[in-house]
Design brief:
mainly alpha, 65% helix, 8 helices, 233 residues, 0% strand
């Protein structure tokens, strides 16, 4: 089987505004969600209360352990290791640089998430209803944002390095994992559903902006974007 190219043919010619459509949509949805949360001073919205209560009423004890096992993979050391693995797969000839790129890419979504969460200062559900430990503010969910961003990095890595029938399966797995992590935050009672939704929207917005940046960098490298005069000195 012929080697898989590091970049798809014609990637440098893709319009930079192509990812701008999901960026705009996610920006509007996230802004609407934040506005709704601010309007009630961080209190749970109607759908939050309803879904939260239903989860607590139908949460068997035996399922808490597996949910905790899933949720711990969505943040901290496991998440950064997965992000670094994605970087290594993308930069197989420069593994240390790839690992650093993966970690920095994940850090680039963490900083705005922390800033947004601190600004909103939305309280979590009552601590007595949690099935595990948690800290920090509620919106956007940190585990949800982190796992979704890692899923994007892993998806890119799979797309660039895996071919054949295995590609389809491996492209789905990161999204399923990220969805499971987000759902576990609600299932364990530590986040309102809109906290998780905000995390997904923020990660999607980040991915779109990253896509725009990568397209512009590829076009510049291919000579499609003229360099500044100072670059020739």
């Amino acid at each position: 089987m012929p080697p898989i190219p590091a970049t798809a043919p014609g990637a440098a010619g893709k319009p930079w505004w192509l990812p701008a459509v999901p960026v705009l949509v996610c920006s509007l949805l996230l802004a609407a969600l934040i506005t709704s949360a601010c309007a009630v001073h961080g209190a749970p919205l109607g759908m939050d209360e309803t879904l939260h209560r239903r989860v607590l009423e139908h949460r068997p004890r035996w399922a808490v352990g597996p949910a905790v096992a899933v949720t711990v993979t969505g943040s901290g050391v496991p998440a950064y290791l997965l992000a670094m693995l994605a970087g290594v797969l993308c930069f197989r000839n420069r593994r240390w640089r790839g690992a650093a790129a993966g970690a920095l890419a994940l850090l680039s979504v963490q900083l705005p998430r922390i800033a947004l969460a601190s600004w909103l200062a939305r309280p979590r559900p009552p601590a007595g209803e949690w099935a595990s430990s948690a800290s920090g503010y509620a919106m956007p969910s940190g585990h949800t944002t982190t796992s979704a961003a890692v899923a994007v990095l892993l998806t890119v890595a799979v797309h660039r390095t895996v071919g054949g029938r295995a590609r389809r399966l491996l492209l789905v797995l990161p999204a399923l994992w990220a969805a499971a992590v987000g759902a576990s935050r609600v299932y364990l009672g530590m986040h309102w559903p809109t906290d998780v939704l905000a995390g997904w929207l923020l990660a999607a917005l980040w991915a779109g902006l990253l896509g725009i940046l990568l397209i512009l960098l590829r076009r510049r490298k291919a000579g499609a974007v003229p360099s500044n005069e100072g670059d020739s000195t």
